[in-house]
Amino acid sequence: MAIEFNCPYCTAVIRVGDTAVGKKGTCPKCDTAVVVPRPGVVSSTEPVSTATTSPDVVPDVVPDVVPEFESRPEASVSSRVRRRRRKTGGLAFPLACGGLLLLAITVAWFLTDPSRFRGSLSGELTASYVTADVLEPRSIDPQLVQTRSEDFAALVESLGERPGRVRSNVMVVAFVELDGTIQVRVEPASEYRLVRVGLGQSEALQQFVETQSNRLEGLRREDLANSLGQLLTDWQAAQEDDEVFEDWTGFRETVGLTALVGGLGHHSMARTGRQNLRCLYEAGGALYFLVPASLGEFQLVGRVRDDGSVPFPADFSVRIGSGG
């Protein structure tokens, strides 16, 4: 004879043999622990249905047998915490391994990065005197201030009527109009002489140029673009005040000399002991400096940027002679 009753939680119909009376088991539908009631006895949660079903009626859930089981006591707070810690601890090892792998990849990339210079930029170089004929004029790329193209065009047009000139005891720097852009020209003063420092004298220096030239050139163009923007702002302010712009001195180095050199020259200085002289020109694998005519040697060092960085970390002793 079968006993039929409802699960007190999901109300599924459960039918078992009469030998299962009083035994503990689980509902096949909701997996809830239940006790098989005696026929005609109300369960502790829901009334037990004693209705019989005809052979052709299939109940919702009809298990063949309800196995005996022992109810597990509710886990204590401390045991739940321990299980949670075990689960978390299981993730700790793979996470740690992943972190170490990422660190190893980063270190390997840093050590093998071809753009990273690992030599020492120091030693002795020689420089030779050259004539000023090598100082060809350089034009400024209008794309550096393409967001202010109209202001740049107006400035260029004004230079066609009135060129900008900056004269000092070292050189004369001129800003003129040529082919719709600004051209920079330089003429050394008689008290100073132009010297050429060849970059091929040092293997480390050559390696530095090969690996770092693009980065240095990018910094130079960035600096030149910022200085050009300031020049346009000052020039426009003078126009609004109906005045002639004459403050070219403040832009002799930041615009003029920056336009005459490349990335390495932009970050190079000639330290004479009494003054620091910026690189005047860069071409053909060499740097050019204007130095006092009586100078016999100087230090080729890196120029410190406004943010305190030194992209060209050099300290060469340069002797002026027949080499270079």
Shape: elongated
Indicate the structural class: alpha+beta
DSSP strand content: 25-35%
Computed Rg: 43 Å
Largest beta-sheet details: 8 strands, mixed
Termini separation comes to 114 Å
Strand order of the biggest β-sheet: 12-11-15-16-5-10-14-13
How would you state the average pLDDT, rounded? 82
Q: What layout of secondary structure does this protein have?
A:
Blueprint: E1 2-6, E2 13-17, E3 24-26, E4 33-35, H1 77-112, E5 122-130, E6 138-139, H2 149-161, E7 164-167, E8 171-178, E9 181-188, E10 192-198, H3 203-240, H4 252-260, H5 263-266, E11 268-271, E12 276-278, E13 281-283, E14 286-292, E15 297-302, E16 315-321
Helix pairs in contact: 3-4
Descriptive notes:
It is a single chain. An 8-stranded mixed beta sheet has the order 12-11-15-16-5-10-14-13. It has a 4-stranded antiparallel beta sheet with strand order 6-9-8-7. The chain has a two-stranded antiparallel ribbon with strand order 1-2. It has 324 residues and is α+β, with helices and mostly antiparallel strands. The chain has 5 helices and 16 strands. The chain is elongated, with a radius of gyration of 43 Å. The longest helix has 38 residues, at 203-240. It has 2 domains: 1-72, no CATH class; 122-321, no CATH class.
